Amino acid sequence: MMRDRAGPSGAAVTVEPPATTDFDAIVVGAGPAGSAAALELARAGHSVALLERGPFPGSKNVYGGVVYGRVLDELIPDWFERAPVQRWITRRQTMLLSDERSLTVDFRSQNWGSAPYNGATTYRAEFDSWLADHAQQAGAVLVPSTVVTSLLRTSGGRVVGVRTDREQGDLTARVVIACDGVNSFLAKQAGLYPGEHAEHTTLGVKETLALPKETIDERFGVSGSDGVDIEILGGTGGVPGGGFVYTNHDTLSVGLVLGLPGLAKAGLRPEEILAELKRHPSIRPLVRGAELVEYSAHLIPEGGYRTMPRLVGDGLLVAGDAAAMCLAAGIWLEGVNFALGSGMYAGRAAARALAADDPKRLREYRTLLADSFVLADHRKLRNAPALVLSDRVQQRYPGLVCDLVEGMFTVENPAPKPGLRRLLRRSAKRNGVGLHQLARDALTGLRSFG
Amino acid sequence: MADSGSGPLVVVAMRWVDTHARVDALTGRVSTDARGAGPSEADRCALEHGLRIAQAAAGRCVAVSLAPEPATDMLRDALACGAHAVLRVDPGHAAGAGNTDDRADSGAATAQALAQAVRDELGHPDLVLTGDHSADRGTGATPAFLAAELGCAQALGLVELSYTDGHLVGLRRLDRGRRERLAIPLPAVCSVEPAGVRLRRANLRATLAARTATIPVVPSDPAALAAQPVAVRSVRPYRPRAKELPPPQGSDPRQRLLRLTGAHEEREPPRVVVTDDAGRAADELLDYLRGKGFLA
């Protein structure tokens, strides 16, 4: 069987239980989850090391999306006045793409353009650094350019620290919080991931395209710090996934999220599919003349609730992408807020366990998550990822909907106008969708999203 | 580490720069980001040389930078790598001194501020090491100005530097593949190219200690800041040299002129292909290259 071979190390290192530890807690990864956890722990008065493999927090992250910051109200109450925001999202579109057609549901609300804001586009390099700064100011020790290669475990299986790629690189603590991102080697070393999960992982590819702010404002119909979030279904060259266009201050983030098995099967390169997306008649006018300033790619855990690992080990908590906390439910595509929430609750549970000197209280992490939006939303939408990434939703329904709408709006005088039922039957037949299947999917969707 | 304190004082002057700065192709505006900033590769080599020489000579290695507050992390890294001490000279904003960027443009002002701070805080250095030129302004003038300020010898653009039996020896690259080996008397200012050595990786214990260490800061000398930098008065477009042609044969001025200009000679007129079709443009180019015999 194919094993996960990439990464720092294959197995945890067995050590003697340390008499004293270097820190109360070690947080691995200074992304949103890691910094939130470190911030909670430091505020509770515990010594925390925040280890980051990049030269600064956010340097290794790829992000082209929207931060929903409501959860930050608990962590940093006046966050919206100080966070490095590119634009506040006041216009939200969901776009179905099929060959050279598209159907867009367009919603805008100026309520989202003032406090309390709904969502914002940010650059993760800025946002993560900003959040990590708060953790540092609270007392966490940030150690950048340091890769954690293994867990340190006692012969009894209790996690007591980590080994890094530096000389004299062992660091001990009473609690380790793994926020090491998708494909978490630490969670795997701890045996918290049951098996392979490539089929639940997508590849996100993104181009950052520079355009003058005035041009973006004009093309997207916004002004000031207002921004637009376009989520796209279809336009992925037949590979299960989706696309997106987000407005930043003077750049656009245009990208795709592609299922790994489908991408491998299609034998296509992601940048080719992205180039095709940019050539689509609905996208081309938005990106015309833009200068490519960055191309990046990153794996995303999109399996949702059903693919989450065990979140609590002996001396170890898992949060953020490492715990598959990304919500990919079609109309809702969120990740940073779940990372922030899970990191915050991991830090809170760890702080309580440390204060009580009772490692068993780490289990409260699961309870805190279950009582919050983090697991509530994931549990509620547990069937959504499979539905959204299904062959029908990905490849047939966009065509069906576009056929249906095209039939509705095509004027064929002197022929009389067809009825909606007839149009639906015709569109379903053209796109190989049975009406019974359509009804079943609608029911599944209703149960998931209802 | 050898015993430090009795040997020479080695000062490594490091410039804090954004090595991934973006330049707007149209306006020339340079965008920098403090998060990605740090020492250039040449400065990292200088620090490694400084650490090795201080160890070999049982001296002290001190990393110094004329830089704003965000450069603290760069100095922490130097401390973690083994520097005995660090010093940040804050450029500040003195009246009449212009902004930090203006002063940074001037190697003389930088050298004056650094030399003054080093003399005041550390004493007279035996050896000052720098990168051969900064990664942003890149004039390479600062080391020479530093040598002048400190009144010591200079050896610039070295690819090797070693301290053996009390002697400092460098190797400098010359034109046409030549090399010159230099015996460098102390006190001296040496600048090194980013070659030969690589800065050691700090161990975790030292890294942790450096993260919480206090980084001493001194304000730069107001007199140095007030020094007027060299100013660029005007920039002219690049003008290549005229191409030399052999004189035309013959004595008749008209014939000479015709030969010189190529008038009345058979030649293929130049063509400019303007098309939106990339495929057609490529075909045109390929046909041209085939016609000229560049492609089979």
From TrEMBL, chain A:
Residues 391-449 form the FixC-like C-terminal domain. It comes from the Bacteria. Keywords: FAD, Flavoprotein, Oxidoreductase. Its EC number is 1.5.5.-. Residues 23-204 form the FAD-binding domain. GO terms for molecular function: FAD binding; oxidoreductase activity. Pfam families: ETF-QO_FixC_C, FAD_binding_3. Belongs to the ETF-QO/FixC family. This is Electron transfer flavoprotein-quinone oxidoreductase. It comes from Saccharomonospora amisosensis.
TrEMBL record, chain B:
It comes from Saccharomonospora amisosensis. Its cofactor is FAD. InterPro entries: ETF_a/b_N (IPR014730), ETF_b (IPR012255), Mft_EtfB (IPR030982), Rossmann-like_a/b/a_fold (IPR014729). Gene3D superfamilies: HUPs. Residues 27-227 form the Electron transfer flavoprotein alpha/beta-subunit N-terminal domain. Heterodimer of an alpha and a beta subunit. It comes from the Bacteria. The electron transfer flavoprotein serves as a specific electron acceptor for other dehydrogenases. It transfers the electrons to the main respiratory chain via ETF-ubiquinone oxidoreductase (ETF dehydrogenase). GO terms for molecular function: electron transfer activity. The lineage of its organism: Bacteria, Bacillati, Actinomycetota, Actinomycetes, Pseudonocardiales. This is Electron transfer flavoprotein beta subunit.
